[in-house]
Design brief:
Order of helices and strands: HEHHEEEHEHHEHEEHEHEHEHEEHEE
Helix content: 40-55%
Number of helices: 12
CATH superfamily of the largest domain: Response regulator
CATH architecture of the largest domain: 3-Layer(aba) Sandwich
Oligomer: single chain
Structural class: alpha/beta
CATH topology of the largest domain: Rossmann fold
Radius of gyration: 26 Å
Strand order of the largest sheet: 5-4-6-7-8-14
């Protein structure tokens, strides 16, 4: 019995077959063979094959037959740039706006997938994220820029065959990532070693002698932060500084513990990486009548400017530079490089008033 496929449905079926079972240059079955194998109408097969040829996945060479194209390097829209990031975050929303401008200047058109719900771990959000991302990849963007807390190998595994629908992946996190053998991989992130050195040196210069990290509950991040800050302090000749780490997932208890620590400490610097952590810490300490910055100094490492009332020091980076570095990373990958890593230097977004000891 002949199945009644719509030709675009059949084209998608063949596309997945190509990604799964064929290599560039391999002979593709004739339309007669496809019609027989899938019990499909010949007219539908013909339209589906023509559709894949127009997308650059197949090469029709007359009597020689049909061949699988070099779909690793062709068939993509070179001017389409996919941005996958949590747009409800102040930082990523700002980067998205800057990327839209920079992309336009470099003849790219951007499409975005908002990962905010998945970042907030809402029920079903991760599955919905990948469904929307796979839909976006139907447009075959040549470059995909991603910010997600997911592990990169897990991310690519969840994409499945859809990972073949783009050429270059640019990852926007500072953690170390392994090369993916069949995906040119770029990484553009804040220089975290330089960032923590800037924060720690400023805290020491301001007279703070105890450091508290207020970080999200991500083990690789907190371990990296602790090691980096300890190294910076050791280089400054201070080796007996205790570093306190709090769990953002249990926010109120973390804030209560932090207030207690501040009440028993005369020289404390709190370093916050959570988007609104610095603001929350400032509010909790003020509610407990703890003087800022005389008794406690607050550092926000998330590129977020706060009101003068918060009286904190904010460390971040230049969004314009970040977006340009992303384009530079794409350009390097386009030069047949399989891996590219670029860093963004930190800078002060705002500084707290002078401490009165």
């Amino acid at each position: 019995m002949i199945k009644k496929y719509k030709y675009l449905q059949f084209a998608e079926l063949l596309e997945n077959e190509i990604y799964r079972a064929y290599q560039p240059g391999q002979v593709f079955p004739s339309q007669e063979m496809l019609a027989e194998r899938f019990s499909c109408n010949r007219a539908t097969v013909n339209k589906a094959v023509r559709e894949l040829a127009e997308r650059g996945l197949l090469l029709q060479q007359g009597r020689k037959g049909t061949f699988v194209a070099d779909f690793i390097n062709s068939g993509f829209d070179p001017h389409l740039l996919a941005l996958v990031m949590p747009l409800r975050s102040h930082m990523w929303d700002r980067l998205y706006l800057e990327m839209s401008c920079t992309s336009s200047e470099n003849n790219y058109f951007t499409l975005a997938v908002d990962t905010s719900a998945a970042a907030e771990k809402q029920p079903g959000a991760e599955a919905e994220l990948f469904r929307r991302l796979k839909h976006l990849l139907q447009f075959r963007p040549r470059n995909v820029v991603v910010s997600t807390e997911l592990d990169i190998n897990y991310f690519l595994e969840k994409l499945g065959n859809a990972r073949r629908k783009f050429r270059n992946l640019i990852w926007l996190h500072d953690r170390d990532i392994a090369n993916c053998s069949d995906t040119p991989l770029g990484q553009v992130s804040m220089d975290m070693t330089a960032t923590w050195r800037l924060v720690a040196e400023n805290a020491l210069h301001s007279g703070y002698r105890d450091i508290c990290l207020f970080v999200q509950n991500i083990s690789f991040m907190s371990d990296a932060l602790k090691a980096c800050v300890k190294n910076v302090l050791a280089e400054a000749g201070i080796t007996d500084v205790h570093i306190h780490c709090f769990n953002e997932d249990d926010l109120q208890n973390s804030l209560n513990s932090l207030v207690h620590l501040a009440q028993t400490n005369e020289s404390l610097a709190v370093i916050c990486t959570y988007d609104y952590g610095a603001h929350l810490v400032s509010g909790a300490l003020r509610a407990a009548n703890i003087l800022i910055p005389d008794k406690v100094g607050i550092y926000g490492v998330n590129n977020t400017p706060w009101s003068e009332q918060d009286n904190l020091t904010s460390i971040g980076f230049d969004y314009r530079l970040w977006s340009r570095q992303i384009i530079a990373c794409i350009n390097q990958l386009e030069q047949d490089k399989t891996h590219c890593k670029l860093a963004i230097p930190p800078q002060f977004i705002q500084r707290a008033s002078t401490r009165h000891i």
